[in-house]
Amino acid sequence: NLGIIDIPVYIHIVYPDANSISNAQVNSQMATLNADFRDVNINQLPSGTTFANDATDAGFSFSLAGTFRHNDSRSSWGTNDAVKAAYPPITPDTHLNIWVCEIGGGILGYAQFPGGNASTDGVVLGGDYFGNTSGVYGLGRTGTHEVGHYFNLRHIWGDGRCNRDDFVTDTPKSDRSNGGCPSFPTTHCKSADMTMNYMDYTYDACMYMFTDGQRNRMRAIFASGGARASMVG
Ligand code: ARG
Ligand code: ZN
Ligand code: CA
Fold first, then answer.
1. Distance 110 CA to ligand 2 centre (A)
2. Residue by residue, what is the 3-state secondary structure of 24-55?
3. What is the pLDDT of residue 35?
4. Which atom of ligand 1 lies at the shortest distance from residue 206's CA?
5. How far apart are CA 7 and CA 120, in angstroms?
6. For this structure, is 146 an active site residue?
7. Rounded to whole angstroms, how far apart are CA atoms 14 and 101?
8. In whole angstroms, how far apart are CA 13 and each of 2, 18, 94, 153, 206?
9. What ligand is nearest to the CA atom of residue 207?
10. Atom in ligand 1 nearest the alpha carbon of residue 207
11. pLDDT tens for residues 177-206?
12. N or C end of the chain: smaller count of CB under 10 Å?
């Protein structure tokens, strides 16, 4: 039993004016991660409704280990890890590295799954979707979603048709992502989609849970022999 797993975080802010992303914005992202991964976020399904009992405390906390600001005139970085080559991760075997930059192309963020190259390990978030900002993606849940990937979670619909899997048994099958803020039930593959799961594509205010199965899948990589075991103990 690993207890609450604390993840130290390095934040790399890469913008023409790196001070345009404030410490308050950094802290708001940390607060969102800490609330969402302990299931103490305010948006919750009403008790008694479907899925309400499936929301779980994933048992992770996050502490800010350092913020690094880089003034860089490049206006978009894409999704090919260019920002990581320019500003390499710091001790990725023990720290979650998050780069905040203009990705471009309407991309909110992207992450590397466990087991990949150490030189590109971590999460990249667009500054407009980092911590508390404005708009429908303004609650920092892009960070929650991407850290979910970094912890080995797949999209809730398994990125495929109804028989494609996210390798988690207590998330219902679906054949597609959901966007916006769907009403319940939204049914695909003969059962209601868990549109309120962090690993769907719904608006930030409308996603607010991980399941037990997702918790177990995330925590498994921190156990002895797991791909991120070096981050604990
Ligand atoms: N499209 C991105 C991905 O697949 C992030 C989606 C984030 N969604 C959100 N509501 N913030 O990794
Ligand atoms: Zn995703
Ligand atoms: Ca599933």
1. 7
2. HHHHHHHHHHHHHCCCCCCCCCCCCCCCHHHC
3. 97
4. 10
5. 18
6. yes
7. 5
8. 31, 6, 20, 25, 27
9. 1
10. 10
11. 999 999 889 999 999 999 999 999 999 999
12. N
